[in-house]
Amino acid sequence: MNKRKFIFAIILIFICFFSINVKAETTILYGDVDGNGKIDVSDATALENYLSDKIELSYEAQKRGNVDGDNKITANDSKVIRSYIAGQTTIPIKMGDVNEDGVVDQFDVLEIQNMLMKVYNLHKNKY
After folding, report:
1. Which of 35, 100, 110, 113 has the fewest CB atoms within 10 Å, i.e. is most exposed?
2. Overall CATH class of domain 29-93
3. What's the angle, vertex CA 76, arms to CA 102 and CA 61, rounded to 5?
4. What predicted TM-score, i.e. pTM, was given to this entire model?
């Protein structure tokens, strides 16, 4: 198999993977640790209680609580949420929201596919 066909096959695998695994219109409200649809003091408190081993958080709650993008729950996540509540900052991370419309959906998949095709075309022209 030549390099062009190999690269094309890899891109197709990525496209199929992302098309199958991204649910349409999955909205994640980062900072909403308790999942009640709003970001408030109870979310920052939940993170602080989790960090001091007073409560457990589900995987989804931890995912929503990781607002600084370091892939772990730290005191900084609570600080960012408290700053957000006070109107001093924004929630800096929206994982998977490639086109930054506030929703992770099929349009993000299309954006990823377009990026992969650009990479493929760059490599295609080299060989």
Report:
1. 100
2. mainly alpha
3. 55
4. 0.57
